[in-house]
């Protein structure tokens, strides 16, 4: 039987994965809509590559913290618009 802490960690990882997925979709839409500015395209591609890498490392505490704080606030910012 799983302890409460293990369940909590799983829930935190699942939440982080959802945040990453939502932000990735937002960035992908931005990339599709803005192909004229090469600097912006490069920045978006770089951010998306970072998110893909962090998704692979999602079980690390420092990555979870970053996703649940920085990326979560970024998703909220985009959803308010």
Radius of gyration from the alpha-carbon trace, in angstroms: 15 Å
The whole-number mean of residue pLDDT values reads 88
Please count the beta strands (DSSP E, at least 2 residues each).
Answer: 0
Strand content: under 5%
Total of helices: 3
Report low-confidence residues grouped into runs of 5 or more.
Answer: 1-7
Helix content: over 70%
Give the SSE string. HHH
Distance between the termini: 43 Å
Structural classification:
mainly alpha
Q: Main sheet?
A: none
How would you sum up the global shape?
elongated
The total tally of domains equals: 1
Describe how the helices and strands are arranged.
Layout (H helix, E strand, L loop, with lengths): L3 H30 L4 H19 L4 H20 L1
Question: What this model shows, in words?
Answer:
The chain is built from three helices and no strands. With 81 residues, it is mostly helical. It has one domain (15-80). α1 runs antiparallel to α2 (38-56) and α1 packs across α3 (61-80). The longest helix has 30 residues, at 4-33. Residues 1-7 have low confidence and may be disordered.
